[in-house]
Design goal:
By secondary structure, the protein is an alpha+beta fold. The protein has two domains: 130 residues, Creatine Amidinohydrolase, Chain A, domain 1; 223 residues, Creatinase/methionine aminopeptidase superfamily (Creatine Amidinohydrolase). Helix 9 runs antiparallel to helix 10.
Length: 359
């Protein structure tokens, strides 16, 4: 992907003048990976109109030499010292930085040692905005991650029985995804049964599954650096009519929201479509989070698909669609797919059936 990394760095270089910047300093790991392919834990990049300089420490010298296709500097001490040296040498004046992505300690160490006429200027969100539109290679990686995730779910779900613990199913899901090629889970796997399924971000416990319980499984894999996200529901036994009705409501809301996804659509509109379906069932007040979010190198990326968000979807965005309802003391239901926005709609990457699976 080196040509792609170089093209991304060139796009940033071309955008500096419009932002009245002499350079952009990137310190956030996912943004560094996006611009260079670097996967280590300590790195920085200084981009100017003419060059890109990557900084890391000796632990990553070999990786940087093998993976990073721009100029490299191996720091013997804190990276900030070498970054400052480059700023002085290049006589840079206005340097953009990522305010929400840099620690106060790093900012302070840079700011107090800058040359007299140099200054740091907030330029947050720039790389994240570029990351919202995925290339063909990025979409292929997300698709592989989605498929790995779904296969892991199928293998683990076949083992679910009454008496199995939430923690055991979560461990089985993560074991399976790793065996199938994932580097790690994209986030802490959510498994919650019975009344605990009404907690949108429940952590798995040692509680055993009981017959007559609904189980929510929210899981994602990270593979080749890219994330997937899926939520499916299991029921132990035969679901009662109330459960079937609530599940049908969420499924109809999810399908309607997916149908509303297309290039140019407002994110708030997609969210509103899901809420309107749930309102018809009297369940709209039980939907307490946004309808979805972007994903890629991170599990949560722009755009957010929420009621107050006014972004427009664009071709190449990878997003989730995940409406849900949560009724305290009863159960929670969420159905989630990963999709890619196209000009006429979207490509649903998640292959797993959305039928309520009874075990």
């Amino acid at each position: 992907m080196e040509n792609e990394f170089a093209a991304r760095r060139a796009a940033v270089a071309r955008g500096l003048a419009a932002r009245k910047l002499d350079a952009l300093l990137v310190w956030f790991s996912p943004n560094l990976r996006y611009l260079s392919g670097f996967t280590g834990s300590n790195g920085a990049m200084l981009l100017t109109p003419e060059r890109a300089i990557f900084f890391t420490d000796p632990r990553y010298e070999i990786q940087a030499r093998q993976k990073v296709g721009c100029e490299r500097r191996i720091a013997k001490g804190p990276l900030a010292a070498d970054v400052l040296s480059a700023i002085r040498r290049l006589k840079l004046r206005r340097i953009g930085y990522e305010p929400g992505r840099m620690t106060c300690d790093t900012y302070t160490s840079l700011e107090k040692e800058l040359p007299m006429k140099a200054s740091l200027a907030a330029a947050g969100g720039w790389i994240e905005e570029l990351r919202t539109i995925k290339s063909a290679e990025e979409i292929a990686r997300i698709r592989r991650s989605v498929e790995t995730n779904s296969r892991a779910f199928e293998q683990a779900a076949a083992r679910v029985r009454p008496g199995m613990k939430e923690q055991d199913l979560a461990a089985e899901l993560e074991y399976r995804m790793r065996r199938l090629g994932a580097e790690k889970p994209a986030f802490e796997t959510i498994v919650a049964a019975g009344v605990r399924s009404a907690l949108p971000h429940a952590q798995p416990t040692a509680a055993p599954f009981q017959t007559g319980e609904l189980v929510v499984v929210d899981m994602g894999a990270q593979q080749d650096g890219y994330c997937s996200d899926m939520t499916r529901m299991l029921f132990l036994g035969t679901p009662p009519a109330k459960m079937k009705r609530a599940y049908r409501a969420v499924l109809e809301a999810q399908l309607a929201a997916i149908d509303a996804v297309r290039a140019g659509a407002r994110t708030a509109r997609v969210d509103a479509v899901a809420r309107n379906v749930l309102k018809g069932y009297g369940l709209d007040r039980a939907f307490i989070h946004s309808t979805g979010h972007g994903l890629g190198l991170e599990i949560h990326e722009p755009p957010r698909i929420g009621r107050r968000d006014r972004h427009r979807l664009a071709v190449g965005m990878a997003i989730t669609i995940e409406p849900g309802v949560y009724l305290e003391g009863w159960s929670g239901i969420r159905i989630e797919d990963t999709v890619v926005v196209t000009g006429s709609g979207c490509d649903i990457l998640t292959p797993t059936s959305k039928e309520l699976r009874c075990v």
